[in-house]
Amino acid sequence: MLQEVVVSTSAPAPNTQSTGNGSILFHDIQSGASLASFKHTNAAKNCTALIPTREAQGGLMLAVQPDKALLNIYSFQKDQISQKFVLPERLSCVTIDRRGQFCAAGTPQGRIYLWEIASGIMYNSWEAHYRQVTVLRFTPDGEALLSGSEDSGISVWSVFRLLDDGVQNENPQVYAHLSDHTLPITDIACGFGPFPSCRVLSASTDHSVKIWDLSSKSLLTTFQFPHAVACIAWDLTERLFFAASTDGSIHQVNLFRTRANKSGGYVAEAIGGAGVNDVLLVRDDDSSTTKRRLISVGEPVTALSFSLTGALLLAGTALGNVHVYDVPSHQLLRTINAHPGPGLAVTHLTALLKPPDLVGHVQLGGDKDGGIPVLPILPFQRMREARPREAHEVTMMLPHARNSTHESVTTYSREELLRDWEFFVKPRLTTPTVENDALSAPPLDGRVTELADEVARLKSQLARAKGINDVMWETLTQTAAAQGKELAAPDQAHDSHEDAADERERKRGKTKA
């Protein structure tokens, strides 16, 4: 069955004297049960990135270590560190594009590095900001890289130009520089759509969240909050977003509103979009006509994320807890005490389908035993070199044959996929069982036969009704025609008598004359 899990990373909080080690944990989103644990990491905020399992290759997790120029690599198949990469300098944030091809990392000095994961080649390294890079994000199509910094600026870089060998000796030209914030950037969220036809959401410690349009390189709307915004989460449909603060408050902001029209109904319309002067205030006492839009967590919120379906909101706190809220009602469904260690705060939070090669949940071994090979990854280069780029040697694995045992773990048949999709998407009031499903869900072939019989029966009834209608119409027309003939006969006889009388009168007149 498809199973959604919560991946959370912890590290000692900045304002505590905790000396404990953080970890990366997997929990079931429905029950909160612990599924896997990966120790010996203290990745700070925006310092964890994941490559999911795909194409019969096991996924990886990358965690940047604080105060050290080290990058820990974890495989889903082992609960220990798989590799350690020595980096050119200490990093402050890291991100990976959706296809798992490139890795970008920022430094406290404002420099950004770009590596190819499969080959380890450093394709570019440049001075992007004059203060620490706090957050990096790829657009969904991987065509652009967004960087936020403590200098309050957001830069948009074209990945195509960063990879161009012809401009390796030049400082990359920025596509756009978004500079309306006044304090350090804390979080960035990218909307869907191909670059540059997509919108961007940015949060800052200046108590504001801004929406940008990359196609026009302009600011659309500013939302002003009562507290500094630490993290944001954007709905998949881009209808609303949540903004969390370290004081324990989470505000829901709807990007639409309903109004009454002239016909007495209601229509929905977008809000904002007026540009720099469009500032909307969000207060703690804000409420809509049906519900409050404020969630009081009671703990400093350090991470936010939506579930895969968008129906649940995940909130990580500075006390190591993960709270699961229902988005429509804001009801707290459950609390996962993910990182109970003293002084450990949740620094990364995301939801994904449980990897098929997760340690402890599938029997893995060598290729003979049907194990899933780990995605190849080579050590990242510490400096740019022209020779590796020219050779461009990439380690990769060819897809397995249809009868390979590897596909038995990562590939679904059509029937299994439909069954798991129904179990994952459709809510159930009771716990499903095999007996109940067999009794309540009729076979698909039987249902098709039943519907075909019903269609045939309805067609026969329609034909009978049409025949009766035709007979009634024919009888009615014949009766009307017969009645018309009967009425016409007396009139013709009367006319003939009148004509004869007139003829006799004319003859008498002539005789008298």
UniProtKB/TrEMBL annotation:
Keywords, alphabetical: Nucleus, Repeat, rRNA processing, WD repeat
WD repeat windows: 126-159, 200-222
Gene Ontology biological-process annotations: DNA-templated DNA replication; rRNA processing
Subunit structure, interactors included: Component of the RIX1 complex, composed of IPI1, RIX1/IPI2 and IPI3 in a 1:2:2 stoichiometry. The complex interacts (via RIX1) with MDN1 (via its hexameric AAA ATPase ring) and the pre-60S ribosome particles.
Subcellular location field: Nucleus
Sequence segments annotated as region (Disordered): 482-513
Record-stated family: Belongs to the WD repeat IPI3/WDR18 family.
InterPro entries: WD40/YVTN_repeat-like_dom_sf (IPR015943), WD40_repeat_CS (IPR019775), WD40_repeat_dom_sf (IPR036322), WD40_rpt (IPR001680), WDR18/Ipi3/RID3 (IPR045227)
One Pfam match: WD40
Biased composition, class Basic and acidic residues, residue ranges: 492-506
Identification of the protein by name: Pre-rRNA-processing protein IPI3
Task performed by this protein: Component of the RIX1 complex required for processing of ITS2 sequences from 35S pre-rRNA.
Broad class of the protein's primary localization: nucleus
This protein's GO CC annotations: nuclear pre-replicative complex; rixosome complex
